[in-house]
Amino acid sequence: MSLHAAGPRQAGGAGGYLFGPGAAWFAFVMTASLMLFDYIDRQVIVSLFPHLKQEWHLSDKELGGLVSIVSVTVALAGIPIALIADRFSRVKSIFVMAAAWSLASISCMFTGSYGQLMAARAMVGLGEAGYGSVGPVLIASHFPSRLHGTLLASFLACASVGSVLGVMLGGVIAVHWGWRAAFGVVGIPGLLLALLYLKVRDFRTVALAPARGKTSQGSGRFIVRQLLASRTLWWLCVAAPAQVILVASVWAWLPSYLHRFHGLAVDQAAIRAALVVLCGAAGAVVWGAVADRMAARSRPRVKLQLMALLCTVSAVVLGFAFGASRLGLALSPQAQFDLIAIGGFFMACIGGVVTSVV
Question: Which of 68, 203, 230, 313 is the residue whose CA sits 20 to 30 A from 60?
């Protein structure tokens, strides 16, 4: 196996763009749009929890499994699929991924039991596996490095916006047409975008070493050694997932929390939770731009120092929002929601910055 990388700037590479600004921005819009539907399909289920709990008498553990199975599948299949995309066309790989997760999402509307829905959700995760790594690589290849932090933060902010729409649409559609309809409504547009994505221009890859011989740097062993040699990567692999657990937990359970503890209707709880996710999307873009500016004026390491500070702030704010009662403090529902929204603005800070550092 040979290791591949982006080739030199090809035709139309003026200003650091791979094929020119037009092709670059088309690639960004299409890749970001698919990221949007990636997370719409992933998160639509969280606002359907009350309906599923009532119809199938599911426990909270079983409901949580419908979210976790996607993340577990992405974690297990992400690296193999990303390696396949590195060796072949990234554009075609993304097309296959998007078509797969969209079809899997649509299939959820035809399930008749918890086991069937769990299997369909696993297929959603299999389709989405690798997209979070392949998409940013394609975007970064099209644009000059000075824009990478901001663009990658914006790309990953689409995950927040997609989560907003998924949570909100799921709750509203389920109230009017039933929970099954929600999967079909959000799945079909992804198929159309997948077909249109074939118009995106891919970049050539070049082998970094000959494919033959025991010392080939393209060996899987070489790739693993390179990954393990980076202390920064090790710390990121510990810290970033910890913050992602916080983000995923708040986004997944906030609609149910508002429904159960504050008595909001399912659709109203979904809309309120969507506002918190929207705060996260705004925060991802803002903090990505701030980190880029700070790094340009100082040194790249300041990006990670800023992320450490912001993650700490989010933990303190959210910890107080959900735990004030244990300290003997009574927060009004509105005050608690305001604190959760503020914490949401800080907690999604890491996405674009961590990706650009890696």
Answer: 313
- pTM equals 0.71
> Is the pLDDT higher at 110 or at 289?
110
**Band of pLDDT at residue 323, cut at 50, 70 and 90:** confident
Q: Determine the average pLDDT of the residues in 200-206.
A: 69
Residue 345 lies in a domain: yes
Our count of domains for the chain comes to 1
User: The domain that contains 80 carries what CATH number?
Assistant: 1.20.1250.20
Separation in Å, CA 176 to CA 109, 182, 313 = 15, 10, 39
In-domain check, residue 210: no
Per the structure, the complete domain to which residue 253 belongs is given by 18-203+225-357
Residue 284 resides in a domain: yes
Asked if residues 202 and 90 have their Cβ atoms less than 8 Å apart, the reply is: yes
pLDDT at 226: 65
The token duo for 64 is 């949580």
